[in-house]
Design a protein that fits this description.
Strand order of the largest sheet: 1-2
Structural class: alpha+beta
Number of helices: 2
Shape: elongated
Helix content: 40-55%
Distance between the termini: 38 Å
Largest sheet: 2 strands, antiparallel
Oligomer: single chain
Length: 84
């Protein structure tokens, strides 16, 4: 996978607020008819940006992140209490 953003084309928002994901993007993200996707807003400085992720990929990310939460909290606790 490339390490920089990829331009997949343009999509028009229809009267019902729907968009069609360009076929190249669907192929790259392995999105098929009926699949669910997650839409996430961009950072505050890019408030008009959204990211689209297949639900399964987002779930995998969350699972990995959850595994590290305890370690992160432990390290933050050490730093806030002055322990090493």
């Amino acid at each position: 996978m490339e390490d920089h953003p990829k331009f997949y084309g343009l999509a028009t928002v229809g009267t019902k607020g729907q968009i069609v994901i360009p076929s190249e993007a669907r192929k790259a993200l392995n999105i098929k008819s009926g699949d669910k996707v997650v839409l996430i807003s961009g950072p505050a400085h890019q408030s008009k940006m959204i990211s689209l992720l297949p639900v399964d990929d987002f779930a995998k990310f969350l699972n990995k992140f959850e595994k590290h939460i305890f370690t992160v909290k432990k390290e933050l606790s050490k730093k806030s209490s002055g322990k090493k």
